[in-house]
Design a protein that fits this description.
Distance between the termini: 53 Å
CATH architecture: Orthogonal Bundle
Low-confidence stretches: none
Structural class: mainly alpha
Strand content: under 5%
Mean pLDDT: 88
Number of domains: 1
Number of strands: 0
Radius of gyration: 21 Å
CATH class: Mainly Alpha
Helix content: over 70%
Length: 83
Amino acid sequence: MLDCRHVLAELSNYLDGEVSPKLKQTVEEHLASCRRCSLVYNTTRKTLKLVTEAGALEIPLEVSARLRVRLNLGKTEQNTSGR
């Protein structure tokens, strides 16, 4: 059985379906018995699903304008403080 360090190192390959059947089985056995690695796996899987299914988000003009003002203020403050 693999330890947590090895499972987490293979997680990306596992999620992409790029592991041998034997390694897949070993990773799945570890995930079934390790709460920590299972949590990392589930969180990563859900995050990838959200990112790939979400597509581009359109920021409303009002929010975009306020964000630009804040960014410019931060930039001005940074320039006047001598940084």
